[in-house]
Write a structure and sequence with these properties.
Number of strands: 0
Number of domains: 1
Low-confidence stretches: none
Radius of gyration: 13 Å
Helix content: 55-70%
Oligomer: single chain
Largest sheet: none
Structural class: mainly alpha
Shape: flat
Distance between the termini: 25 Å
């Protein structure tokens, strides 16, 4: 659930991430994670990091949207 929310926020901030990942280039995603998650890990708790990185508390609706997009694509 957390990964889906973090990835959604990363994609909003850096729209080139999906294309880069398709080429095997993890640099844009890792850069975003380093700035918004890893740099905060020693000074903030889980809930705070998620909220600061994504702009909202952990939200199950984002995970549900991810599951629907991945496993129930529109016909």
């Amino acid at each position: 659930m957390t990964a889906a929310q973090l990835f959604a926020a990363a994609r909003r901030a850096r729209p080139e991430i999906p294309e880069a990942l398709g080429r095997g280039d993890f640099v844009p995603l890792m850069g975003w994670l380093a700035e918004h998650v890893h740099a905060q890990a020693s000074s903030a708790g889980f809930e705070t990091i998620v909220e600061q990185a994504t702009g909202e508390p952990l939200n199950p609706e984002i995970f549900k949207a991810h599951l629907k997009a991945r496993y129930l694509p529109e016909a």
